Input
Amino acid sequence: MGDDSKTVAEIAQLYLGNILYALEMAALSLDEQNKTTDAAFYRGIARKLAEARGRETKSR
Output
């Protein structure tokens, strides 16, 4: 990652798989703590990111 001029969007796109994985791991941990509302919040973020990526891919 030597290029410091990348935008947040470019970095997020590059690491989207890792971000989605981390969000799901956080959600699983929250589920184990019986914090289902919090888990749903993180899964919602992941869903929105995945859907946005899908729309981006289709528009190409």
